[in-house]
């Protein structure tokens, strides 16, 4: 499924790439929570964050939004772990042609992973759908 980016998202990607010097694979803007989620090329996470988070802080000031950065991986399991570092185990299954990802997290981390009103889980689902055609993410 091809992803269509609007002009604001393209502007944010260009600004982020210029400030960090890293390549962006995908960007998701959550206007409701005033946050931009960037999926960057593999191996560039440290450069994108900067020393003590300086580049992230500068980027947040420029775009007037919160910034969350995730490292891309062509391997689905590794990408899920990059999105959800609290995951203790993952399982992938195919149900009627739909890819479902089960993610196990500790009891104390479950609320953090899901987020208020499921906002974090929605972002994870969207990013996984756009990059790896995952249809569902289940947190256990």
Write up what this structure looks like.
With about 140 residues, this protein is of the alpha/beta class. It has 2 domains: about 5-70, 2-Layer Sandwich (GMP Synthetase, Chain A, domain 3); about 75-135, GMP Synthetase, Chain A, domain 3 (2-Layer Sandwich). It contains 6 helices and 6 strands, in the order αββααβαββααβ. The protein has a 3-stranded mixed sheet, with helices on both faces. A hairpin with a 4-residue loop joins strand 1 and strand 2. Helix 1 runs antiparallel to helix 3 (about 55-65). The longest helix has 14 residues, at about 5-20. The model has no long low-confidence stretch (mean pLDDT about 95).
Q: What share of the residues does DSSP label as strand, in percent? A: 25-35%
Residue runs with pLDDT of under 50 for 5 or more positions: none
Protein structure class = alpha/beta
CATH C-level name of the largest domain: Alpha Beta
CATH topology heading of the largest domain: GMP Synthetase, Chain A, domain 3
| C-alpha geometry | globular
Mean pLDDT: 94
């Amino acid at each position: 499924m091809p992803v269509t980016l609007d002009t604001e998202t393209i502007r944010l990607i260009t600004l982020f790439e210029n400030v960090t010097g890293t390549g962006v694979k995908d960007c998701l803007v959550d206007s409701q929570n005033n946050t931009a989620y960037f999926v960057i090329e593999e191996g560039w996470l440290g450069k994108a964050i900067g020393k003590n988070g300086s580049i992230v802080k500068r980027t947040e000031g420029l775009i007037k939004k919160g910034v969350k950065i995730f490292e891309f991986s062509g391997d689905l399991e590794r990408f899920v772990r990059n999105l959800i570092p609290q995951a203790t185990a993952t399982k992938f299954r195919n149900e009627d042609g739909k890819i479902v990802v089960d993610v196990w997290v500790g009891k104390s981390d479950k609320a953090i992973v899901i987020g208020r009103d499921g906002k974090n889980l929605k972002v994870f689902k969207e990013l996984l759908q756009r990059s790896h055609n995952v249809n569902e993410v289940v947190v256990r």
